[in-house]
Structures are given as structure tokens and as C-alpha cells.
């Protein structure tokens, strides 16, 4: 291990964590009105109706795959009967489907944003930078999945990247484990840390806000239902016009002129 390895895999993760936490707190305190995706559904909904669910459900599946690969130790999956061959088959099949679906969804979103005039005009430089970071993270992730399955000379990431990732959270970074990982995994890890570092300062910050309170929020009554019977009973108006003296005089003169 050299100084560079220690800085990259022992120091940089905590710098990124500090930026993510500090940036999120800052964004929440000083830019709550900007804590939004700035929806553009009003401008175009046909492509968005397909691309948005494809991207969001795909990214959730990708996240679930990362949880299984990085957080769950290899010994645990083997203890429940998941062999190495079964695990790699699942990683290749489900991981590729989720990754390709997510990539296709974000490509459709970028195409929509570029070809729809009002949506493109509402696109900022920050949004363009965010899309570059997202697409690159997805491409490097798909690349590592293919390499880990077909290139048997690459060290198993469940013995290199996974122990390093878990060691970060117990404040004992296993730099040696990450140093032994393949180059593709190192590139993907560095790009992922860069993505998380800019996360609080882009529209991606909305992912930290889950609308759980909607499940417990009381109903909002916009118009109460009138249970009185209809028919010949006159309906009482809920408002009366507010008149002024000049209007009252004008109305009186008009009525007088009509009688004459």
C-alpha cells in the first residue's frame, strides 16, 4: 500500500460522507424551495410516462443488488445454500436487466429533455453535469458486472470491495482489500463516490425525501357534500354580493328609468 491508496480508500470515503451529510443539511436549511425535481410533466408526458418508471424502478433494483453484493457477506449467502455459481448467475441476469433498464430509462429522459423545446430550455448546467455523472456511473457498473462474470482473473469483489465497504462504517477502513480489487471496480467506486459528493447539490437530493407522511396525512376537504334533499327547496347561496354606494345609486336609477 502506498500513500495514494491510503488517501483514496482510507480518507476519501470519509470526505465524501462529510460532504454528503453537510451538503444535505445545508441544502435543507437554505434551499428548501429548491428541494425538488422541478417536474416538467406539464411540457411533455408521453415519453416521461415510460422513461420515468423505467429509470426509477431500475435504479431501485440496482440499489438492491448493491445491498446484496456489498453489505451481505459471502459466508451468509453460502450458509443459506446460495453457491458461487448461483450467485454469479443472479448477478449477471438480474443485475444486467436492472442496469440496462435503468440506462435505457435515463437515455430516454435525456432524449426527451434534448428534443422537447420547453424542457430543454428549463435544463440547467447543473442538470447536464448530473446526467453525465449518472450515465458514467451506470456504464462503469455494467462494465464491472460483465468483467466479474467473464474474466476469472479479476479478484472476486466479494472478497475485496465488499469487505472494504463494510469496514468504512465501523471506522476501520480495510485499504488493503480495496487495493487488491480489479481496476474496473476501483474506477466504478471512485466514480460512485464522486456522484454521491455532488448528490446534495443537484436535483438528485429529492431521493432523500420519501413521502411517507402521505400515508398518515388526513384527508383534505375541498368541498363538503350537502346532505339536504334537493327538489323544490331553494338552495341558499353561500355568498352575497358586496355593493358600494355608487353602485347602489346606479342600480336605483336604472330601475327607476325602466319603470318610466
From TrEMBL:
Localization annotation: Cell membrane
Transmembrane segments: 6-26, 47-72, 87-111, 131-150
Annotated positions binding heme b 2: 66
Domain of life according to the entry: Bacteria
Binding annotation for heme b 1: 56, 188, 206
Ranges for domain NarG-like: 6-225
UniProt keywords, alphabetically: Cell membrane, Electron transport, Heme, Iron, Membrane, Metal-binding, Nitrate assimilation, Oxidoreductase, Transmembrane, Transmembrane helix, Transport
GO cellular component, one term: plasma membrane
Cofactor: heme b; Mo-bis(molybdopterin guanine dinucleotide)
GO terms for MF: electron transfer activity; heme binding; metal ion binding; nitrate reductase activity
Region (Disordered) residue spans: 229-260
Listed GO biological process terms: anaerobic electron transport chain; nitrate assimilation
Primary localization class, coarse: membrane
Membrane topology recorded in Swiss-Prot or TrEMBL: Multi-pass membrane protein
Annotated function: Does not seem to have nitrate reductase activity.
UniProt family annotation: In the central section; belongs to the NarJ/NarW family. In the C-terminal section; belongs to the nitrate reductase gamma subunit family.
Name of protein: Nitrate reductase-like protein NarX
Organism this protein belongs to: Kocuria rosea subsp. polaris
